[in-house]
Specification:
Elements: H1 3-8, E1 12-14, E2 18-26, E3 29-37, E4 45-52, E5 59-63, H2 66-71, H3 76-95
Antiparallel strand pairs: 1-2, 2-3, 3-4, 4-5
């Protein structure tokens, strides 16, 4: 996906690197859809889906990048999305 398309529909933007599209609660999980800018191609964003268990450090994630598809482990895009989501949740908690 192109980053300029992802930037139009954001809930929260962590700099120009991570765009959080949606955050919703599903059962005991918090599911977030994020778009993270590629380092090699600056106009391309990869979709990251994070599932967090609130109150714990446990999370699972899936990324569309070739590195995640090849290795299967957490990539740098998942890590960046997790950091941005934590910042978003801190801000949301202060607003409430």
């Amino acid at each position: 996906m192109l980053c300029r398309e992802a930037a139009r529909r954001v809930v929260y933007s962590h700099g120009n690197e991570v765009y959080i599209h949606s955050v919703e609660r599903r059962g005991g999980w918090l599911v977030a859809v994020c778009y993270v800018r590629s380092e090699s191609s600056r106009d391309k964003c990869y979709q990251v889906v994070l599932k967090l268990r609130p109150g714990t450090r446990y999370f699972t994630g899936h990324c569309d990048c070739p590195d995640f598809k090849y290795r299967g482990g957490p990539c740098k895009h998942i890590v960046k999305a997790k950091v941005a989501l934590r910042e978003y949740l801190k801000i949301a908690k202060r607003v409430e």
